[in-house]
Amino acid sequence: MAGSESHYILPLPSFDKPVKVLIVVSPYYKDIADNMVAGAKASLDAAGATYELIEVPGALEIPVAIGQAHRLSNFDGYVALGCVIRGETTHYDTVCNDSSRGLTLLGLQGACLGNGILTVENREQAVVRADPDQQNKGGGAAEAALHLIALQRKWGKPDSGVGFRPTGSFQVAGEGTDHA
């Protein structure tokens, strides 16, 4: 059983500048979501990160909300939390694949994010994975985001604007030309 295997966990990175993270959760299964949020908050607290929490209706809205925040806000990283439990229809496959694909594309575009959307066969699997005292997948997703933030900071150039992602054109005050 994969759930009982032992895995190596990287030590938390340390930061010399503040870290601000957005936790995006779908509380569709509220008890499971609450446990995942608790695990994520504990990991972020342990690293000294600050965070905000927003809720969205379902797993498909998680990458949309993170994409909006990535374009329009100043978060260093993102934690995606939710749970999809297999049902009787193929909707499960669509939700799992599309939410995962959306998060992967955001990561490839530079968003430092941890994917904590559980995709499970039944409620019992979700409970074990969400519990901070068991598999703590919420904490693991937060830690993944922190590691990616550390890498981005390591490889970022000074004053490179890492974290500032202009979209389209904008005008600098006092100048009459657009910059892209």
TrEMBL record:
**Record-level GO cellular component terms:** cytosol; riboflavin synthase complex
Q: Which Pfam families match?
A: DMRL_synthase
Q: What does this protein do?
A: Catalyzes the formation of 6,7-dimethyl-8-ribityllumazine by condensation of 5-amino-6-(D-ribitylamino)uracil with 3,4-dihydroxy-2-butanone 4-phosphate. This is the penultimate step in the biosynthesis of riboflavin.
Give the protein family. Belongs to the DMRL synthase family.
Question: Is Zinc-finger a UniProt keyword of this protein?
Answer: no
Q: What is this protein called?
A: 6,7-dimethyl-8-ribityllumazine synthase
Q: Under which main EC class is this enzyme filed?
A: transferase
Question: Which residues are noted in the entry as 5-amino-6-(D-ribitylamino)uracil-binding?
Answer: 28, 59-61, 83-85, 115
Which GO BP terms sit in this record?
Answer: riboflavin biosynthetic process
Sequence positions that bind (2S)-2-hydroxy-3-oxobutyl phosphate: 88-89, 129
Copy the pathway line from the protein's UniProt record. Cofactor biosynthesis; riboflavin biosynthesis; riboflavin from 2-hydroxy-3-oxobutyl phosphate and 5-amino-6-(D-ribitylamino)uracil: step 1/2
EC numbers for this chain = 2.5.1.78
* Alphabetized UniProt keyword annotations: Riboflavin biosynthesis, Transferase
GO molecular function annotation: 6,7-dimethyl-8-ribityllumazine synthase activity
Q: Quickly give the catalysed reaction.
A: (2S)-2-hydroxy-3-oxobutyl phosphate + 5-amino-6-(D-ribitylamino)uracil = 6,7-dimethyl-8-(1-D-ribityl)lumazine + phosphate + 2 H2O + H(+)
Report the active site residues: 91 (proton donor)
